[in-house]
Amino acid sequence: MALSKLEKRIRIKRRVRGKISGSSELPRLSVYKSNKEIYAQLIDDKNGTTLVSASSREKDVDANGTKTEVSAAVGKAIAAKAIAAGIESIVFDRNGFVYHGRVKALADGAREGGLKF
Question: In what order do the strands lie in the sheet with 49-55?
Answer without folding.
Answer: 49-55, 38-44, 28-33, 91-93
